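ok so heres the complex, two chains, lmk if somethin looks off
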Amino acid sequence: MGLPLTQRIKYGVGRYLPFLKIGPPKPERKAVMTLRPCQNSAITWEKQGDGSVLLHVPINQNTGRLGAVMRKLLRPPKERRVELDEVGGFVWELCNGQHTIEMIVQKTAKQFKMNRREAEVSVTMFLQMLHERNFIGFYKLVRRGGTPAAKDESMAEKPETELTKNTSEGR
Amino acid sequence: MASQSVSTLKQEEQPAATVIGWQGIRCVLPPDWNLVSFSLERDSGYLRVDAPADSALTVQIRWLDAGHTQEPNSIYGYLMRFLQKRGRSNPRSTAGPDLKASLEKLLKETEKHARKEHVRFECHLKPEHIEGERRAINFSWVGGGRGQGKIWHCTQCNRVVMAQVVGLTKDHAAIASVAAKLFGTLQDHSIDGRDLWALYDLQIEVPNTFRLKEQQLYSGHLKLVFGRSGERLVVERWGLASTTLKRFTLDEWFRNQALIGLKNRQSGPLELPMGHEAVFYRFQLPIWNRIGALKSAMGKPSCAATHYAGGGWVCEATNRIYILQLFYNKRADEDLWHEVASRCRCHS
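and the predicted structre for the whole thing:
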């Protein structure tokens, strides 16, 4: 659901005039930690022997007539490859829509013997980076009535049809 | 309380408790608390330690050297200081700093915040009392949250320290429990001439003559740089050792991270008291490095660093790499590297 027009104008003004200090409210940390990251289904990936993960990201081919001509002439690759290291690969595997960010942080901290705070900073930054590149989207579990789920973990096992899907579009 | 020894402090620690050490201040807090805000100055500064994110509790510690006078910032200031020095010597007041006045100043600030939120502010001050070397006042306040704290003056280090646990109004029991733990373990000065620097699971004791010059606190990499006249001590802690050491040996890793060229230098293995084997280099600084060291010795060539000692080790239990590098003056302390390394608590 989009923001009302008045708020959109207000935040739009705040964006270009930062000294006015008006902007959309920052999401609460607690709410962010209950989001469930989910891989973009357009991306294929393979796990390598050393624990790293190789992502095959399709390149957008819809760039109009000029693009089609250029593509014929230059023959660019149809996908690009992104290699995630051992820690990145571990987090990527957990981005399957069943784990909340909080769960991923806990598992990463345990697996790599990291301080809880350090793991949280690293994982959230990494997920943010993946999201900016449209590699992942986020689920938010809500009840059918619209109120947040009372017990998040119990709903992880429920079928996808009961969840509100809120993923970013893949390339 | 203030005269508590290091050994007593260690005995009191729970295995998972968080130990915080910064600029001579040290305390033990419940598990998973983390340092979030700090100042670099030793004479006066602050420290904020937050509870894990699902709790709103926070510990604030401020300190001020009671004997510290501010540097004048104008010609008038310098003139006044000169005249005061020339004039009759002013006998130092034996009563010490006015704790009540400092506390009231702090509480006024808190009250201002409460007023902004249109809530009633109430504070309760207990009478001043003596606790060993300390003259202390306990206090608590409610309004726009809740706080329980203590302000004291330590005669040994001449510091005025104010520490409080702050939380939501409903967190009364939690605040009281954390405050009991905090005030039972909080120490305001170095012990046996060493300061404890403890943050994010790094715990190291450094001689109190060294001052913190730089810090870099990244996720997975902590770096603290200390200086003493022309000497420099660099402490680093890297996370994810298992991932790093898949591609490099410890020696290769250390050579890449060293602050000085180690080409054609031979390392010697060294057994550390914690049971780790370290790579270790020690040699006299080359002439061009000694010229650079003279510059940082600030006109005291006798204090300039003449030697380098550096080494690193892997702690498998915590999956971390520790690196210690020391640029030292041979006349000052030759075994300083070993002393600091042996007092680094990399695992429990």
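quick notes: The domain at 27-162 of chain A is CATH 3.90.930.60 (Outer Surface Protein A; domain 3). thats all i got rn
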